[in-house]
Amino acid sequence: MHRIARRVIIVVAATAALMAVQPAFAGTASCGGDARSTLASRSGLSPSDIAKHGGTNAGDVNKLIAAVCDDTHSAPTAAAAAMQAANYTPTEIGDVLVGGFEQTVLESAGIFAYLGFDASEIASMLLGSYAQTPLEGAQILKSLGFGAVEVGVALKDVFGQTAFQAAGILKQVVYTAVEVGEALRDAFLQGAQGAAQILKDVAFGAVDVGLALKNAFLQNAQQAAQILKTIAFGVVDVGLALKNAFLQGAQDAAQILKAIAYTALDVGMALRDAFLQTAEQAAQVLKTVAFTVVQVAGALKDAFLQSAQQAAQILKTVAYGVVDVANALKDAFLQTAQDAAAILKAILFSPLDVGTALRDAFFRSAEQAAAIMKAVLFAAADVAVALKDAFLKGAQAAAQILKDIAFGVVQVADALKTAFLQSAQAAAQILKDIAYGVVEVANALKNAFFQAAQDAAAVLKAIGYAVNEVAQALETAFSMLANEVGSVLKAIGYALEDVAKALGAVFGLVEDGLKSVLVGIGFDPGDVDDILDTIACLVFPPSCFF
User: What's the rounded Cα separation, in Å, for the pair 22 and 16?
Assistant: First the structure.
């Protein structure tokens, strides 16, 4: 408070105190007479005695008494003024006021304040003449409008109080933390940290201590936060001080807390309890101030009690990449590769993302990653996308892996079609090359590529399956009868002899039955007889003996 303004307050308070004195002397013939007679009769002090003590003369003493009486109409005040001018000690003056004029402690304090005694001088009177305790003295001085620094000086110099004791008293008489901080600074020469420790010890909260550091010690937000941490305020308290004393937003406060070596968990708790942040808001702040994803995940886990999947969803929402999220699941939540993959799938990361995470966060091979993705119910086509784009596998290599981890042939074929954009024939060739049987390849053509029997048979023929194998595939995969198989084989360009041999081998037809089928599907009867004669010994050995 400005010195002149404080002086006005003191004068006002002193004048109010003097008003309480007036009734005792109202209506007297002479304020000055009362002052002189009381001084002489009760304290043995004549104007000449007072003048001698002060090195003046009785006339000057009487003039001063008269002047003060004109101003205040208060004999005690006039007597005190005369003694003050004659250099009597505050205690000597106080003794006269209490013993001679029967003034109460508040009345005497008001007179002293009116006469311009400083806080320490008034305190000397309060202690020496009225045996006031430090607390009582501080309360009276505050009521007279003295500032905390002046009262602090009085507590130290007059009442012999330590910095800690004085701070406790100043708090009790309702000085603010900033005011007490100023007293510790100016009266007790405390530095910022020492003062902060004392303020904490006398039960000022972190926000109040922060205000004192800011306004009394001119500390910036980070300096104050460091001090508050050093004197063992908790991180939430420090956060509240940054918010309410330094008007820091959540992100700025988090940056400061990180800079003074609080952990991500600590900062998360401050964001939760001091700034009322949600888990997602806190994660965004922690990310922005450059905590690692694992640290952010740890804060979500321990400060916000988020499960692994909840935390992963938040990390995804605040734009962490899939590998970061996977690392967080692995290192903060101790998730296995398969558990992490299931979570990543559940929060809608793409198959490619999941494959990438398995590769880069869990160091899984293509085969291992594919098996994990199958275990968490990714479709074969999705696994194939991961194999293609995360592990750079070609179509055949991917198909082999899908086969090895027990995807069915139709699923493998669908993966070749969807992920690798393979045609039916190209896919069939791959399936053949990785040792799927002809019937399995036919089933794939039928169910993954929606091939009709004839189209499938043409593909099987084109990729080098023998006619008997094609016939077997048609019979088994397409549930076709002999005549139906024969028609397809004929339609895709197999010669009569090939068709005859295939039908005989697959369906076990006898000669007449085979002829009937072949003629029935449009072969010339004469040609059929010739072919049957040619192959008779092979297909029907007994006929060779006739």
Answer: 10
What's the rounded Cα separation, in Å, for the pair 61 and 307? 87
Question: What are the pLDDT digits (tens) for 335-352?
Answer: 999 999 999 999 999 999
Number of Cα atoms under 13 Å in the Cβ half of residue 479: 0
Q: Dihedrals φ, ψ of 493, to 5°?
A: 95, 15
How far apart (Å, rounded) are the C-alpha atoms in residues 410 and 216?
79
Question: Can you tell me the distance from the alpha carbon of 100 to that of 283, in angstroms, rounded to the nearest whole number?
Answer: 74
Closest by alpha carbon to 285, among 246, 250, 332?
Answer: 250
Collapse the DSSP code of 357 into the 3-class scheme (helix H, G, I; strand E, B; otherwise coil) and give the result: helix
Can you spell out the DSSP letters for 45-70? --HHHHHHHHTS-HHHHHHHHHHHHH
Angle among Cα 38, 40, 45 to the nearest 5 degrees reads 120
SS3 202: coil
* Total residue count of the chain as it appears in this document: 546
> Are the C-beta atoms of 407 and 374 separated by less than 8 Å?
yes
Cα separation, 81 vs 72, whole angstroms: 11
CB 175 within 8 A of CB 149: no
> Rounded CA gap, 154 and 164, in Å?
14
Q: How many angstroms separate the CA atoms of 502 and 506, rounded?
A: 6
Task: Write down the pTM of the prediction.
Answer: 0.86
Burial string for 237-269 (b: 16+ CB within 10 Å, else e) reads: bbbbbbbbbbebebbbbbbbbbebebbbbbbbb
Each residue's pLDDT tens digit, 100-140: 999 999 999 999 999 999 999 999 999 999 999 999 999 99
Closest of 462, 397, 505 to residue 445, by C-alpha: 462
Give the tokens for residue 395: 């179509």
